[in-house]
């Protein structure tokens, strides 16, 4: 999808990004974007971007370097409920994967809350594998070789 882009969040766009929401049944699986942006400001190594489809904000993602060399952690990812099932999420993550490879990362981790409305199958469709490890916060660890 050539119309999908990752863009900086600015003072002019932050309210629109914070207004994006997942479906009601998905709310326990990802923090609101306002919380994510606030957390990122206290984690200096983190990076975050808005996901746009043409000129429309449709989502948000945030990542940070991992604890081992060459590894990165996808901390947050969401697509607004009005824009799901259009391929924007996959396209955005493909852009992120390429950017991370260009920066020398070769491994991407993420974690998910398990549940019927959770993102496990979506991540599996992108090549992530469930490691079988459960983190102290109860989330399942997923891994992708970039």
Topology diagram in text:
Layout: E1 4-7, H1 14-18, H2 33-40, E2 47-53, E3 56-65, E4 71-79, H3 88-102, E5 107-112, H4 120-125, E6 129-134, E7 140-145
Parallel strand pairs: 4-5
Antiparallel strand pairs: 1-2, 2-3, 3-4, 5-7, 6-7
Structure description:
With 146 residues, the chain is α+β, with helices and mostly antiparallel strands. Helices cover 23% and strands 33% of the residues. The chain is built from four helices and seven strands, in the order E-H-H-E-E-E-H-E-H-E-E. The protein has helices at residues 14-18, 33-40, 88-102, 120-125, and strands spanning 4-7, 47-53, 56-65, 71-79, 107-112, 129-134, 140-145. The chain has a seven-stranded mixed beta sheet with strand order 1-2-3-4-5-7-6, with helices on both faces. The longest helix has 15 residues, at 88-102. The chain is globular, with a radius of gyration of 14 Å. The two termini are 20 Å apart.
Query: Rg from C-alpha positions?
Result: 14 Å
Numbering strands along the chain, what is their spatial order in the largest sheet? 1-2-3-4-5-7-6
Report the major sheet: 7 strands, mixed
- Which percent bin holds the helix content? 10-25%
The proportion of strand residues reads 25-35%
Short characterization:
The protein contains four helices and seven strands; from the N terminus they run βααβββαβαββ.
């Amino acid at each position: 999808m050539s119309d999908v882009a990752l863009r900086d969040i600015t003072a002019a766009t932050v309210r629109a990004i914070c207004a994006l929401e997942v479906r009601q049944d998905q709310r326990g699986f990802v923090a609101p974007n306002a919380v994510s942006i606030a957390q990122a400001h206290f984690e200096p190594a983190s990076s975050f971007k808005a996901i746009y489809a043409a000129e429309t904000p449709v989502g948000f993602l945030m990542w940070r370097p991992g604890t081992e060399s060459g590894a990165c952690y996808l901390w947050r990812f969401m697509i607004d409920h009005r824009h799901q099932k259009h391929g924007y999420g996959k396209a955005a993550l493909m852009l992120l994967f390429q950017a991370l490879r260009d920066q020398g990362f070769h491994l991407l981790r993420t974690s998910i809350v398990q549940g019927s409305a959770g993102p496990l199958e979506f991540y599996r469709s992108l090549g992530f594998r469930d490691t079988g490890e459960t983190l102290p916060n109860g989330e399942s660890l997923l891994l992708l070789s970039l």
